[in-house]
Specification:
There is one protein chain. The protein is an alpha/beta fold and about 600 residues long. About 40% of the residues lie in helices and about 15% in strands. Strand 3 (about 75) and strand 4 form a beta hairpin. Helix 9 crosses helix 11 and helix 10 packs across helix 13.
């Protein structure tokens, strides 16, 4: 252990003891908490603490992942129980502060769970349905510490991995990551150590580690959660990656407008520079590394690694031709490595605990844990971090609680808008990169949208393709035109106005996209259609014949082919939906039909 890190640990130990010597109130004010009204609850708690003249620490933290319980207030008192309060509104602040913070009596009727101790009438946090099967590695500090606080992070084992790595040879650190079996968590699931090896083999004095938090997938919010809850674990992992590959700079790429992840990451970077954890001669090791935040406008394609580099350079987010590959010619022409935020967040614990520890978690080919985002028709929405190998049914029904109204689950939409559908009978498959790929779906960035038996597989597929069509950057015509053609065909299907040969036409369009598109956006663009057809082919055929429930009226024609007078005067009952025109009134399903 280096002398510099020993001094950090000593300071952190004193600070941690001080924090636990008086009441400590944590309020989850990340994006999910803020959306649920956590800032108003935070203000109310501060007012109550001030009014009662209490000496208490109030800390803003990220989400614990229990998004259904936001706003979440966590109260810990010296020698007393630590209690999580769910759906804590401003009107609950007086009771929480006066009874628990001041008098040490938990408010049982508001309590969600207790931490580390048994409290009569209150379940333990680890016994909550959403927590029972979790094993937290990347999210180990979520909801536990103030984002960007060096002392709190170090007190919970932070930067021990970096200190250990800096005492090793760079090649040994790289080999440790390879032996851990860590695979990329951004979609492709490529072995992380192998990818780092491409960059390590380049002798350029200036090389970049790019950390991708574009995360534009509907239903995925785990990268943002890492940054808003524990950005220091990303920074530590980024520095380790830089040391292992001989890189000189790191860039954290965040989508513009996501204020909590942006602000907290910048604060964490500043704190690391102040304590010698970034910059010149990190921890007295002689290794130097710089990190900055780069913002870009909203663009789903910017998540593709070469489009990301274009965005970092201030250009339009469009993919580059390859070769050259990023490890040879990346951002600003310098060798670069791009990883997802979650991927890099695992690295500190892998180095601290060893490759064998991480490789012992999960399945034979999918090592470690998966962070899944549960949304849709599910009782407990939020994030769970579970070992690979659990079944999808366990994730949805045991951790997610199933449909809140008890309706049967019809399918899961997985892997983002370029992913696929898993029918209910497929939910007993293991959560595993390769098993899901074989089923025509993918784990992707971790979004799991749960759909009950009232959901139309045809219409959901149309929604996914509409998103993909809108987000196509337009650089290559197989994607630009192919997405539009798929959407047009699916619009007809949803209106019950399909033409003979539409299924075959979609397959031909999908094949052209797969073979002719420049990046994964077009190459995978047919995936949601093909997986939906595989699982719900009969439903598609019925809907295309007009025998299913029609969410919109009869198809009139494409908007561009109709004159303004036809829209406004001659057909006053017409409804414009996207680029197409339908009659305003839905048509009931044919007798005996139904999806």
């Amino acid at each position: 252990m280096s002398d510099a890190f020993t001094r950090l640990e000593e300071r952190a130990t004193v600070r941690w003891a001080d924090l636990n010597a008086k009441p400590w109130i944590r309020v989850g004010t990340g994006l999910m908490g803020e959306a649920a009204g956590a800032l108003e609850t935070l203000d109310a708690i501060r007012r109550e603490v001030s009014k009662l003249g209490l000496d208490a620490t109030i800390t803003e933290v990220g989400t614990t992942g229990l998004c259904y319980a936001e706003p979440l207030v966590d109260v810990q008192t010296p020698g007393g129980p630590r209690i999580l309060y769910a759906n804590a509104a401003p009107q609950h602040a007086p009771a929480i502060v006066e009874c628990h913070v001041k008098d040490g009596r938990p408010v049982e009727e508001l309590a969600l769970g207790s931490v580390d101790v048994d409290v009569p009438g209150v379940p333990r946090r680890e016994e909550l349905p959403m927590m029972r099967l979790q094993r937290r590695v990347a999210l180990r500090n979520a909801g536990e510490i103030e984002p960007g606080d060096i002392d709190q992070y170090v007190a919970r084992g932070g930067f021990a991995g970096l200190d250990k790595a800096l005492a090793m040879e760079p090649g040994a650190v790289l080999e440790e990551v390879k032996q851990s079996g860590l695979r990329g968590r951004g979609g492709a699931a490529f072995p992380t150590g192998v990818k780092w090896g491409f960059l390590a083999g380049n002798s350029s004095p200036v090389k970049y580690i790019l950390c991708n938090c574009e995360e534009g997938d509907p239903g995925a919010f785990n990268d943002k959660t890492v940054l808003e809850s524990d950005p220091l674990t990303l920074i530590e992992g980024c520095v380790i990656a830089g040391y292992a590959t001989g890189a000189s700079n790191g860039v954290v790429f965040i989508r513009h407008g996501h204020d909590a992840p942006i602000d907290r990451t910048r604060k964490a970077i500043d704190a690391c520079y102040a304590d010698g954890l970034l910059g010149v001669d990190i921890l007295g090791s002689g290794f130097s590394f710089d990190v900055e935040v780069s913002l870009v406008g909203e663009s789903y394609v910017a998540g593709e690694e070469t489009a990301l580099m274009e965005a970092v350079e201030g250009k339009r987010s469009m993919p580059r031709f390859r070769p050259p590959f990023p490890a040879a010619y990346g951002v600003w022409g310098k060798p670069s490595n791009i990883n997802n935020i979650k991927t890099i967040a695992y690295v500190p614990e892998i180095i601290r605990n060893g490759a064998e520890w991480f490789a012992a978690i999960g399945t034979e080919r999918s090592k470690g844990t998966a962070i899944a985002c549960l949304s849709g028709h599910v009782r407990y929405s939020g994030l769970v971090e579970v070992p690979f190998g659990l079944t999808m049914r366990q994730v949805v029904e045991e951790l997610g609680g199933g449909d809140p109204d008890g309706k049967p689950i019809k399918f899961l939409q997985t892997g983002g808008p370029l992913g696929g559908l898993l029918a209910s009978e497929q939910l007993d498959m293991a959560l595993d990169f390769d098993e899901m790929a074989k089923a025509g779906a993918m784990f992707g960035s971790g979004g799991l949208i749960v759909c009950n038996d009232e959901t139309s597989a045809v219409d959901l597929t149309r929604v996914l393709v509409a998103f993909d069509q809108m987000e196509s950057c337009g650089k290559c015509f197989p994607c630009r035109l192919g997405m539009s053609h798929l959407l047009e065909i699916l619009e007809r299907a949803c209106a019950g106005a399909s033409r003979p040969g539409d299924l075959e036409l979609m397959e031909r369009v999908g094949g052209n996209m797969r073979s002719g598109s420049l990046c994964g956006h077009g190459q995978l663009g047919y995936n949601p259609v093909s997986s939906a057809l595989s699982a719900f082919g009969a439903e598609f055929e019925a809907q295309m014949r007009g025998e299913g429930p029609l969410p919109i009226g009869p198809f009139v024609g494409p908007k561009h082919a109709l004159r303004g007078a036809q829209l406004e005067g001659e057909t006053p009952t017409a409804a414009v939906k996207g680029d197409f025109v339908y009659a305003a009134e839905p048509v009931p399903a044919a007798a005996g039909g139904g999806a």
